[in-house]
Amino acid sequence: MILIINTGGTFNKIYNEIKGKLIVPKNNIAIENILKLSKISNYHIKGMIYKDSLEITSEDRDKLVSYIQQSKYKKIIIVHGTDTIDQTAKYIAKRVLDKKIVLTAAMKPFSIDPIEATSNFMLAYGFLSSLEVKNNIYISMHGNIKKYTKIKKNYKKGIFECR
Questions:
Q1: Cα–Cα distance for residue pair 99/136, rounded to 1 Å
Q2: Residue numbers of the domain that contains 118
Q3: SS3 assignment, position 148
């Protein structure tokens, strides 16, 4: 069983016609759609924070870490925003040593272009389903899954690359 924690980020954003901008909804619809269409049933989903990653605070990260530490699950996917995914990964790595955690995100919302979000998420899910995964913190983006210190967002190209 894999725990999926949804913190928001661009991955989840939808267009709000009244406000005329993209917002992070307080739901898990994008992830639930991926899981349903992929016929995956071996998971538990928890939504929390529901923010753009630029708005995530140390208090939010404390809540996330506390939930992870208290969780019975040893394999966890965290859906996050791309801008501070590395900061959250580093924060978790200093506090959680006994679990396999993969953070993933998307540069475009699932609601606009479902391919990237689905690809990044499914890479994370497949990786955690492997029997060979060691306890650590990983990032899954753009066809790569590496320890969080070995992958970085290239702002000029708009992609994540291995270091």
A1: 6
A2: 2-162
A3: helix
**Range list of H helices, the chain:** 29-37, 58-70, 85-93, 114-129
- β-sheet bridge partners, residue 4: 45, 77
Number of domains comprising the chain: 1
Which residue has 């990653």 as its token pair?
53
Closest CA to 121 of 139, 147, 100: 139
DSSP letter, residue 133: P
* CA-closest candidate to residue 133, choices 62, 77, 68: 77
CATH code of residue 50 = 3.40.50.1170
- Residue 146: enclosing H or E segment and its boundaries? strand 144-147
User: Model-level pTM?
Assistant: 0.96
Per-residue pLDDT 10s for the chain (163 aa) are 999 999 999 999 999 999 999 999 999 999 999 999 999 999 999 999 999 999 999 999 999 999 999 999 999 999 999 999 999 999 999 999 999 999 999 999 999 999 999 999 999 999 999 878 899 999 999 999 999 999 999 999 999 999 8
